Amino acid sequence: IIVDAIFGIGLNRPPADWVKRIIADLNTSDAFTLAVDIPSGLFMERAVEDREAVIQADYVLSFQSPKLVFFLPETGVFLNQWEVLDIGLDRTFLSQTETDFGLVGKNEVLAGYRPRPKFSHKGTYGHALVIGGSYGKMGAVVLAAQAALKAGSGLVSTYVPQCGYTIVQTAFPEGMTLTDTGERKLTDIDYALEPQGVGIGIGMGTDKATVNAFSNFLSKNKTPMVIDADAINILAKNKALLKEMPKGTVLTPHPKELQRLIGSWKDDFGKLKKARSFSKKYDCVLVIKGAHTLIVYQGKGYINVTGNPGMATAGSGDVLTGILTGLMAQGYPPLQATIFGVYLHGRAGDIQVEHTGYQALTASVIIEGIGPAFLDLFAPPEKQEVVANKEE
Amino acid sequence: IIVDAIFGIGLNRPPADWVKRIIADLNTSDAFTLAVDIPSGLFMERAVEDREAVIQADYVLSFQSPKLVFFLPETGVFLNQWEVLDIGLDRTFLSQTETDFGLVGKNEVLAGYRPRPKFSHKGTYGHALVIGGSYGKMGAVVLAAQAALKAGSGLVSTYVPQCGYTIVQTAFPEGMTLTDTGERKLTDIDYALEPQGVGIGIGMGTDKATVNAFSNFLSKNKTPMVIDADAINILAKNKALLKEMPKGTVLTPHPKELQRLIGSWKDDFGKLKKARSFSKKYDCVLVIKGAHTLIVYQGKGYINVTGNPGMATAGSGDVLTGILTGLMAQGYPPLQATIFGVYLHGRAGDIQVEHTGYQALTASVIIEGIGPAFLDLFAPPEKQEVVANKEE
Amino acid sequence: IIVDAIFGIGLNRPPADWVKRIIADLNTSDAFTLAVDIPSGLFMERAVEDREAVIQADYVLSFQSPKLVFFLPETGVFLNQWEVLDIGLDRTFLSQTETDFGLVGKNEVLAGYRPRPKFSHKGTYGHALVIGGSYGKMGAVVLAAQAALKAGSGLVSTYVPQCGYTIVQTAFPEGMTLTDTGERKLTDIDYALEPQGVGIGIGMGTDKATVNAFSNFLSKNKTPMVIDADAINILAKNKALLKEMPKGTVLTPHPKELQRLIGSWKDDFGKLKKARSFSKKYDCVLVIKGAHTLIVYQGKGYINVTGNPGMATAGSGDVLTGILTGLMAQGYPPLQATIFGVYLHGRAGDIQVEHTGYQALTASVIIEGIGPAFLDLFAPPEKQEVVANKEE
Amino acid sequence: IIVDAIFGIGLNRPPADWVKRIIADLNTSDAFTLAVDIPSGLFMERAVEDREAVIQADYVLSFQSPKLVFFLPETGVFLNQWEVLDIGLDRTFLSQTETDFGLVGKNEVLAGYRPRPKFSHKGTYGHALVIGGSYGKMGAVVLAAQAALKAGSGLVSTYVPQCGYTIVQTAFPEGMTLTDTGERKLTDIDYALEPQGVGIGIGMGTDKATVNAFSNFLSKNKTPMVIDADAINILAKNKALLKEMPKGTVLTPHPKELQRLIGSWKDDFGKLKKARSFSKKYDCVLVIKGAHTLIVYQGKGYINVTGNPGMATAGSGDVLTGILTGLMAQGYPPLQATIFGVYLHGRAGDIQVEHTGYQALTASVIIEGIGPAFLDLFAPPEKQEVVANKEE
Fold first, then answer.
1. How many Å from the N-terminal Cα to the C-terminal Cα in chain A?
2. What string of DSSP letters covers B144-155?
3. Which of B191, C3, D69, D327 is least surrounded by CB atoms within 10 angstroms?
4. Neighbouring-strand partners of residue D101
5. Who's near B21: CB < 8 A, 6+ residues apart?
6. Rounded to whole angstroms, how far apart are CA atoms D318 and D202?
7. C109 pLDDT more than 60
8. Neighbours of D387 (CB within 10 A)
9. CB burial string A342-368: b at 16+ within 10 A, e below
10. Is the dihedral of CA C208, C214, C216, C219 positive or negative?
């Protein structure tokens, strides 16, 4: 067992050559490596420049609070497991040194939870509308609509090209289906409903007619929105459209879509900086999906603690979009809806993966976990567990 | 803890100004408020005029029997939880002062239950027909048909526009599908079947051709009927049709549909009065859907005790219509079918919500609860529980 | 409690007037009536002429073996519950007096069970073909095909009109779908497959073109067959076709179809006589569906003990047809397949009804019970239970 | 009880006439036959010539390691149950006499398992493409696609004729559907995706246009492939195409397809010899499906220990093809993917058969067992059990 506790290193200096040689030796050794506070070579507020010069820790005992770098993909990989010890630092000092990033767990989510009064009715819980689909990509709409309903939306409708009619009506009996004039793609997004939340973009494609339809829709829509998938790609190629988004619009790009949207970055810290700046500029909630999904809004960041590698599966993002749309339809403000929805989505996956393992966790199975994830909110708290970054 | 026991107030006088100021203070206080018999400011037989002058009670210990106002939306909201104590009033006196409204629980339902003899066959349990659907709204028919079958109907058929053919046949293999001559809407409701119960109106739309088809159908149909959704809207706009309904027809409007049907009301008591008068005039069973669904027929009211806020979800009403149609097809008289069906629907939701939470309780999930709700009828009785009007 | 033990009466004489008056009085009494051996007024080998002159027994303690009349609809209704006591009659005598009707329970079924050798493959278990369906009645084919597969057939294909294509392919991914040249009905039953078992008639209709198609099919088909539903109706109207059936063809009429096939009867005993004569004449296995399904072949009758009133539900018969077809495809001879299949079908329903109650037991749910019914064959035996003829 | 321990016989000589007569007598006896090491008359390295001259053993206690003949269909049938005893042979000697065939169990599979790192995403787990289907045979594609997803592939798409569009999109919402220009069959396999694993051939038919399409596809495809069903039949008739397969292509023929591919064989040993030679010649992984599926590659054989006779059911092979495609998409090399996939497929069936029995184990049910089979990999090991070759 090796104990890595070369304190000063972690803070801001790259290690000296002789230290780097020691680190390289340790990393090739078979010994169990225990890092104290933070693995040597990692910085608390900067990216790693020399990845050879960081201890690959089997276990990290960290002090007082977890560090941002534990949650970022480029640096999180240096920790296999970690745990935080309360070492009794002065709490007043801590609250003054609060960073811009907060962890989102069950307590944070419960604070914003809206209980259901008895004398409520279907209308109390809003109307969610999922707009998307194109020839061969109708399943995404089905998954998002099912998720919006399971997230508690009173009504859920779908707006799809005509080739999706029988598919969506068969697979989603609870919802109305509206069809575009286009047979195989959206060409004119126009409806008489008054939804309280709109999710748009999944499976939609980026055909020119669809770009026009989306553009026209953006210019007139006032309903709170979640924008995902191809609608993000359209925005990325037509940046002028970004200004048409209602304040508080939620964007849920996956890594490549994010890059198209905000441009390339040098490292995780660069990505965060660009994301915060983008979010401020367009007054939008930006969801950076990943092992620890990060939500950025109004200069603050919210790190989600739920989820697992089994959720890297087709349609998982469509389910998230559906959950967020369903919560917004119920009246949750965009940021609260996003924080809550990202948490629920991950928790649903965590509950279901116990029955399926990582590989067999599918989007449909995650949807079935949404109910249990709601119930879990009010279950007695489990004791805090060690966070594992690697499948054992 | 505050004890609200200003007895006289609850009966018939609005509280004096100084009492009202006390009430306002109490309601803004964080203290736990326990009301005795009835919260001060609520009346037993009248609506509340000044909502500022009513105690918002955390808990009500009521005497002998619950009050009608506990179950009505405008007044039920003043009670978070309540419980009834037997204080030994003279039972003869009680039976003479019986009100026009009775509670419907398991005992009331069991009294009318029709057991299944061993030497029965499919025909013994009747043929239910669900008529409805239009382009984009076929799921409602699927849900109602599934519910009618689960409610015990021997056969269940559907009558839909042609655009529903593949959808309904795929999702509901147990039933026959009859199609209208209309492609996207009902235009001529005509069939050779002889059902024992008809449910009509769900997802049907109010196109002029459909109005005509419904009107012609009403003029010739003699089968016991449940009328719901758009068929109610058509009746509301064509009051002359109301006289064509067979005696004992069941109408299941949601609040807005009810208003279109019987006109606006000043308060819950006004609504009840109008509903009773409407029900008498047209000899129909009127179902006032809500947290406590209220059934009105022949001058009497029946208050259902099952159900929960999770049932405020898309398609939940279609499931109710299906259950009622399925029970009527089995030969339950309209009132008994309605009392039983409303109870079962709520109980199915109560059983399922334990597994899903309020938000993820969907219409399809309620349907799966119908079987367990039947089994529950014969399960050993649970002890009476406190009634919670608010999610904890 | 009344004990009915007027022994002599049960055997062959109608009761005297004064006995009849006593019986009438007893039947209107609220007392619990216990009948010994057989309720007074029932005959062991004849139908009841005067239904007023039979004790309605709450409980029957019978001797040595149950009587045929306990299982027939007209007479079974006089027994609410019954149980058989072994009173030590000479077994040699019993075996010599064996009647033409035997009970079929788990032991009888296990005797003919064909175990699965390890080194078997898909082909070992045959190919079942379900032929049927017409516009609006495709679900029957789906249910039968699913049941045939769950009954163990290695391959299951369907043959349907073209309007069933998408429906069957979507709902039954395990099977191939062959389509007729007819759009909405079968017009020419012609295929290149070589199935080992064919189930025909469900949802098929009796259109003239279909009658021709069925007639031509009968004249050339050599595969063991189950004939059900509309195919039976066609046979009933075209008796000449009956001679075209391969030896050992299984017919599964419901009561009305049976009547069309063999003509009216005076009472249950008359029905049995006609059924046995019909079965002999055409060398076919005749299934008389009911609370206790009765199978007639080569002069013998087999009374099934499984099943419950919840199975009087749409599609339940299609499931039975599928099971029988699936067993015949596996090589079970027609009589064995029928005895086994009828038992399994009822046992599947008995297992599932525990979870659904009578009303919510649907055909799809029965299909899910087929696997557990197979497993139950090898489960430790339960002790013999009282047979209840009425829902408690 | 008979103990068969005529040691010398098993090794290489056919038994003398008087021994053969004894064997025949023993086989007709009702006594329980216990064979020691190997049933008399079986050879360790040769096929049986005279099947009358082999002891049919109820139980075999074998020494040190199981024999290849225990797993082959022609010889495995002589053992009802068997177990291996460690008799302390010199392990050095054993390792030098290692045969070309190894058993594949949980340990062998776990050695190649690829754990899921936390900071992974959908793209990490590849894109599987299932190509197949024709009019009436679309279900095979649905089953394979579902299985590929459950096996852990990040994305799963399907490529089908146009008549499969609504079917696949409805039944498989997680995946994209690409359609061929052909309405009822594949005529031109052409797509813009870049999958990491392709499964091809299921339900595809062997129409001339499809043969051309497949041939053209083979000549340009570089993606690792699983070839099954009709694609194997096409290869068998067009041997020149075999050279177009990428190295390491996996072929999964059932017995008849295997024969068409490699020609007839005299006995199981002849089959193995031809299979190894074929596999070497075309550098492909050859899967010989059976009770113990045998995988042949680069001169070695791998005998799978999971699976049961219930898996001889329609679509079971499509599920295997899907699993293999899904594993290859995740980056498992062809041989490892095949060994792992064959094991998982059998284990999924073994887990599910506990709930369904052999007969009701269907392909859809096997798919639901894939998740539990993954979880089972990491469950505490069960003690080695007796292997049963016959259903008890």
1. 19
2. HHHHHHHTT-SE
3. C3
4. D301
5. none
6. 7
7. yes
8. 19
9. bbbbbbbbbbbbeebbbbbbbbbbbbb
10. negative
Look up residue D392 and give its two tokens. 């008890």
Q: Both tokens of residue A389? A: 């970054």
User: Which ranges in chain A belong to alpha helices (H)?
Assistant: 17-28, 73-76, 91-96, 106-111, 139-150, 165-171, 208-220, 230-237, 255-262, 268-282, 316-329, 334-356, 363-368, 370-377
Interface test with D, best of A80, A230, A267, A359 (most D CBs within 10 A): A359
Q: List chain D residues with CB under 8 Å of A170.
A: 170
Kindly give the interhelix angle for D208-220 and D230-237, rounded to the nearest 10 degrees: 90
Query: Are B137 and A176 an interchain contact pair (Cβ–Cβ within 8 Å)?
Result: yes
When comparing pLDDT for C355 and A88, which is higher?
C355
How are beta strands C294-297 and C285-288 bridged, if at all?
antiparallel
Nearest to C312 among B124, B370, B372 (CB): B124
Q: Do B309 and A155 touch (CB under 8 A)?
A: no
**Which residues of A sit within 8 Å Cβ distance of B?**
115-122, 124-125, 149-152, 154-156, 165-166, 169-170, 172-179, 370-372, 374-375, 378
A:D CB pairs within 8 Å: 123
Q: Search chain B and give the residue with CA nearest A330.
A: B359
Tens digit of each residue's pLDDT (9 = 90 or more) over A117-155: 888 777 789 999 999 999 999 999 999 999 999 999 999
Chain D residues with CB-CB distance to A388 below 8 A: 118
Angle (deg, nearest 10), helices D139-150 and D370-377: 30
What is the DSSP secondary-structure string of C270-305? HHHHHHHHHHHHHT-EEEE-STT-EEEETTEEEEE-
Average pLDDT for residues D262-289, to the nearest whole number?
A: 95
Give the mean pLDDT of B40-59: 83
In the numeric block, which tokens belong to residue C277? 């004569």
Quick one: pLDDT band at residue B385, thresholds 50, 70, 90?
Answer: low
In the block, residue with structure tokens 């209709």 = C205
ipTM score for this prediction: 0.90
Which residues of chain D neighbour C116 with C-beta distances below 8 Å? 309-310, 312, 358-359, 391
Query: CB neighbours of B69 closer than 8 A, spacing ≥ 6?
Result: B38, B42, B43, B44, B75, B76, B268
Between CA D334 and CA D250 the distance in angstroms is: 7
Assess contact for D38 and D4: CB atoms under 8 A.
no
C-alpha to C-alpha distance for B154 and B148, rounded to whole angstroms: 9
Asked whether the beta carbons of residue D174 and residue A364 sit closer than 8 angstroms, the reply is yes
- Please state, as a whole number, how many other Cβ atoms lie within 10 Å of the Cβ of residue A281: 11
Q: Tell me the mean pLDDT in the region D375-381.
A: 88
**Digit-coded pLDDT (tens) for C241-287:** 999 999 999 999 999 999 999 999 999 999 999 999 999 999 999 99
C-contacting chains (≥3 CB pairs under 8 Å):
B, D
C174–D363 CB contact, under 8 Å: yes
- Identify the pLDDT of residue B392: 45
**Residues of chain C above pLDDT 70, percent:** 91
Six-digit token pair at C29? 């009494």
Print burial letters for D225-257: b (CB count within 10 Å at least 16), e (below 16): bbbbbbbbbbbbeeeebbebbeebbbbbbbeeb
Residue B50: CB atoms within 10 Å: 11
Q: Read off the pLDDT band of C83 (50, 70, 90).
A: confident
* pLDDT exceeds 60 at position D93: no
Q: What is the pLDDT of residue A37?
A: 83
What is the residue type of A181?
T
* Cβ–Cβ gap B73/A119 under 8 Å: yes
Strand order in the sheet with B225-227: B101-104, B300-304, B294-297, B285-288, B250-251, B225-227, B197-200, B127-131, B155-160, B176-179
CB neighbour list of residue D295: distance below 8 Å, 6 or more residues apart: D104, D285, D286, D287, D288, D301, D302, D304, D335, D338, D339, D342
